[in-house]
Amino acid sequence: MKQKIMILGFLVLLGSSISYADTVVSAIADSTITRAVESDLKWDNAVSSHLIDITTKKGIVIMSGYVDNLLSRDRAERIAETIKGVRGVVNRIKIRPIDRTDSEIKSSLLSAIALDPALKEQDISVKVRKGRVVLKGTVGSRSQMLLALKVAKGVSGIVEIENEILIQPQKERSDDDIRADIVRRIEIDPALQEEHYKVKVHNGNVSLSGAAGSIPEIKAIMNKANVNGVRGMDTSGLEVKEWADDWLRRQEKLSLSDK
User: Fold this and answer.
1) What's this model's pTM, rounded to 2 decimal places?
2) Angle 205-11-30 (CA atoms, 0-180°, nearest 5)?
3) Which tens digit of pLDDT belongs to each residue from 160-190?
4) If pLDDT is split at 50, 70 and 90, which confidence band does 117 have?
5) Cα distance between residue 163 and residue 88, in whole Å
6) Burial of residue 134, with CB atoms counted within 10 A of its CB: 0-12 exposed, 13-18 middle, 19 or more buried
7) Which residue of 9, 143, 167, 222 has the fewest C-beta atoms within 10 A of its own C-beta?
8) To the nearest whole number, what is the mean pLDDT of the chain?
9) Which of 208, 198, 191 is nearest to 246 (CA)?
10) CA 119 → CA 30, 55, 142, 145, 170, distances in Å?
11) Cβ(142)–Cβ(126) below 8 Å
């Protein structure tokens, strides 16, 4: 049965200091975080850093300004998330207005979809109104749905995307099979501590919960859960906890994986 995909956002819990192994870790200064984000943006060729303003409050990075497309906006956010001490990102970056009609945007997007080897055979339709795109149709996997979104975000002139793509797996998988696949993918990754996460699957919909050491780690877990048969994903139970950033245990796990 076709089912509309629902992707729920994850929570980032905030705190003033972290106590780990009886040692208090002082928070990194907001000004230091701001300078680090600005520096990394400056050296990234895919983002127009001179059009982006950065401020930081209690570890929360606030981004504003303009970029040419949604993909650049997402990339700027990912860069900020990788900076040590960042506990959350508020992305207020807007798409810079350009002189393109809705028909031109639609033509560019359909061409981009047709040129992608993983999407050209999929049933995807496009509607555009004032730069706002609605994607409809059916694909065989969640990864194809995410790819369609990524392709759309790279098209200039698109200011917003509404995803109504349905997932129709070519081969049905049981919930137990999907869960086992996800758990195994997490277990074999040296950078992840599998005991920190819980995975539940019901009717092909995955629910992830637990503690991660950083926002990029949460996104890594989401990527591991993106296996065949998954129809939807709820990540609202994932939290950022600095005590979960256990590098000693990760190094031990990495060394064991090389034996």
Assistant:
1) 0.62
2) 150
3) 999 999 988 767 789 999 899 899 888 888 7
4) confident
5) 25
6) middle
7) 9
8) 81
9) 191
10) 42, 39, 12, 9, 15
11) no
CA distance 172 to 228: 9
Residues forming a β-bridge with 222: none
Measured distance CA(195)–CA(88) in Å, rounded = 23
The string of pLDDT tens digits covering residues 65-104 is 999 899 999 999 999 988 988 888 999 999 987 888 999 9
Q: 22: how many CB neighbours lie within 10 A of its CB?
A: 5
> Which residue is listed with tokens 């190094």?
251
Q: Which residue has the tokens 């040590």?
A: 84
Structure tokens at 53: 């303003």
Secondary structure (H, E, C), the chain: CCEECCEECCCCCCCCCEEECCEEECCCCHHHHHHHHHHHHHCCCCCCHHHEEEEEECCEEEEEEEECCHHHHHHHHHHHHCCCCCCEEEEEEEECCCCCCHHHHHHHHHHHHHHCCCCCCCEEEEEEECCEEEEEEEECCHHHHHHHHHHHHCCCCCCEEEEEEEECCCCCCCHHHHHHHHHHHHHCCCCCCHHHEEEEEECCEEEEEEEECCHHHHHHHHHHCCCCCCCEEEEEEEEECHHHCCHHHHHHHHHHHCC
Angstrom distance (rounded) from CA 41 to CA 155? 21
Say which amino acid occupies 115: L
Nearest to 87 by CA among 1, 16, 183: 16
